[in-house]
Amino acid sequence: EDQVTQSPEALRLQEGESSSLNCSYTVSGLRGLFWYRQDPGKGPEFLFTLYSAGEEKEKERLKATLTKKESFLHITAPKPEDSATYLCAVRDTGNQFYFGTGTSLTVIP
Amino acid sequence: KAGVTQTPRYLIKTRGQQVTLSCSPISGHRSVSWYQQTPGQGLQFLFEYFSETQRNKGNFPGRFSGRQFSNSRSEMNVSTLELGDSALYLCASSWTGKNIQYFGAGTRLSVL
Predict the structure, then answer these.
(1) Cβ-based contacts of B43 with chain A (< 8 Å)
(2) Which of B 60-89 lie inside 8 A of A, CB atoms?
(3) DSSP characters over chain A
């Protein structure tokens, strides 16, 4: 069964303290791995799509990487405005999306 | 360009009632997917519509149904509401359903 697991569930960082979020997956034929950011009371906001192992994408302080079994979202020198829940999702060959339960990130000034 | 619009934003219903939620996708998007989000389960896929046809369905009971109109707008209906149906219901649209999904702000349903 296709599955997505994110860790840690929650992460507290001091402003400027870099770290990584993990997304491990088992899927019958990966057709894309997606990272989203969700703020309280809002819908998920698209960040990145990765399609093949070795691929990397960057946006401001965020960098997403992909291997055959997991993806990492690296946060460099985070700021309080980076506080949010980060969601990972995969699309399988059946064109269905599976989401992880997310990592809640809090960046303390 | 307008984003995905979901109405209403908040709903309070009682057990046994039924409810209809609405989603207007981004202009030009033909695929609309619905998700249920709860603190414990995360986002759970309900169904996907493409060109007025249900293309995928998640593992939810038949009380959950949906439809899509010719202008790609979609509605989701839940009949005989249960307390466990309390959740944030999210709608996402994409060009074809095979690429990036863009989400609305959701409808917060509370069942009392």
Answers:
(1) 44, 87, 89, 99
(2) none
(3) --EEEEE-SEEEEETT--EEEEEEEE-SS---EEEEEE-TTS--EEEEEE-STT-EEEETTEEEEE-SSEEEEEE-S--GGG-EEEEEEEE-TTS-EEE---EEEEEE-
